[in-house]
Design brief:
Elements (H helix, E strand, L loop, with lengths): L1 E3 L18 H11 L8 E2 L6 H4 L5 H9 L4 H7 L5 H24 L1 E4 L20 H11 L6 E5 L6 H6 L6 E8 L12 E5 L5 H18 L4 E5 L17 H17 L4 E4 L8 H18 L2
Parallel strand pairs: 1-2, 1-3, 3-8, 4-5, 4-7, 5-6, 7-8
Length: 299
C-alpha cells in the first residue's frame, strides 16, 4: 500500500497551539515500525504546481499564502500562524493527495499521511485548513480525464463545508458528509448528502447510519474513484468532537467504508482529516487504525 509523505509535512507551531502538527511525523514512524507500510512504499511529493492549485483557489489567495500577505482577517479565519514552512507544507500535502489518487487508480488503494483539509474555500482557509487538497485533486483528475465520477466519503466530525461549496454545481462529484449536527461549521453549505448526528451519538447508531447511507449512495451513483476522509474526531475522547465513538467503533467505521468500496471494485484514497485526542500518542494510534484496517483486508 503506497502512501504519500514528506518530512516537510511538519511545520512548527507555538507550543500551546491545539493543532497536533507532530502527528504527521508520528504516524509515518508508527506505520513503519508496525510494518503496516514499508519504506519502499512511501512516495515523497513535491509542492503542487501553482497552476493546479489555482484550478480551485483564487490567484490572490494562493499567492497570499505563499507570500505571507493574507491580511489579519484571513489569518484569523485560518486559525494557524503563517510561516513559510506552513505555506510549503500545505502545497506538499495537496500534491500528496494528487499522488495518492493516481496511485489508487494504479494499485486499488493508496493514502496520504495528511490531507482531508475540507474546510478550505476557494479564496480563504478556515478550521486549520489552508488549501482544499481533495478539491484540487478532483479537478486535476477530471480535467486530465483520469476519472469522471468521484465520490467523497467525509466522516470527519465537522461537516466538509469547503468541499461541499466548491462542488455544489458539479454533478460528477458526490459529496457525502456524516458529521455532528451542532458542531462546527455553523453555516453548512449543502453536500450532495449531509447527515448530521446529535451530540453523544454512540457506536451502534453511528455505524448503522453510515452503512445505510453508503448502500443508498452506491445504488444511485457510480463513481470511478472514492476519497475517504477518516477523521478521528468522532471519538468520545476528542477535544472538539461531541460524539461518542469508542476506538473499536472507529475501527469498525473504517472497515465498513473500506469493505463497501472493495465490494464495488473501486480505487480508494485514504486521507487523515481532523482529530484532537488528549495526547499525541492517542492521536497517532487512532489515525493508524484506518491504515491497519486496509492492510489487514489485503485490498
Amino acid at each position: 500500500m503506497r502512501v504519500s509523505y514528506a518530512p516537510g509535512y511538519y511545520a512548527p507551531l507555538p507550543e500551546e497551539h491545539i493543532f497536533p502538527m507532530k502527528k504527521f511525523k508520528g504516524l509515518h514512524r508508527y506505520l513503519l515500525e508496525e510494518n503496516i507500510i514499508d519504506s519502499s512504499e512511501v512516495v515523497s511529493p513535491s509542492m503542487v504546481d501553482m497552476a493546479n492549485l489555482q484550478m480551485v483557489h483564487t490567484r490572490d489567495y494562493a499567492n497570499g499564502i505563499m507570500n505571507g500577505d493574507l491580511g489579519k482577517k484571513k489569518l484569523r479565519q485560518l486559525g494557524l500562524p503563517w510561516s513559510k514552512r506552513l505555506a510549503i507544507r500545505s502545497r506538499l500535502a495537496v500534491q500528496g493527495t494528487i499522488n495518492a489518487a493516481i496511485m489508487a487508480l494504479q494499485d486499488g488503494i493508496a493514502g496520504n499521511l495528511a490531507g482531508g483539509t475540507h474546510h478550505a474555500m476557494t479564496d480563504f482557509g478556515e478550521g486549520f485548513c489552508v488549501f482544499n487538497d481533495v478539491a484540487v485533486a478532483i479537478e486535476v483528475l477530471q480535467q486530465s480525464m483520469w476519472a469522471k465520477n468521484i465520490l467523497v466519503i467525509d466522516c470527519d466530525v465537522h461537516q466538509g463545508n469547503g468541499t461541499a461549496a466548491i462542488f455544489n454545481d458539479n454533478p460528477h462529484v458526490f459529496t457525502f458528509s456524516l458529521h455532528g449536527e451542532k458542531n462546527y461549521p455553523f453555516k453548512k453549505p449543502p453536500s450532495t448528502l449531509d447527515i448530521g448526528l446529535p451530540d453523544n451519538t454512540k457506536d451502534d447508531q453511528y455505524l448503522k447510519t453510515l452503512g445505510d447511507a453508503l448502500d443508498t449512495i452506491f445504488d444511485d451513483f457510480n463513481p470511478d474513484l472514492v476519497f475517504y476522509l477518516g477523521g478521528i474526531d468522532p471519538l468520545e475522547t476528542d477535544h472538539f468532537g461531541r460524539l461518542s465513538l469508542s476506538k473499536k467503533g472507529l475501527q469498525r467505521r473504517d472497515r465498513i467504508v473500506i469493505q463497501k468500496v472493495v465490494a464495488q471494485d473501486l480505487p480508494l484514497v485514504l486521507l487523515l482529516s481532523g482529530g484532537y485526542a488528549p495526547t499525541l500518542e492517542e492521536t497517532v494510534l487512532a489515525h493508524a487504525l484506518m491504515y491497519r484496517t486496509a492492510k489487514e483486508m489485503e485490498y
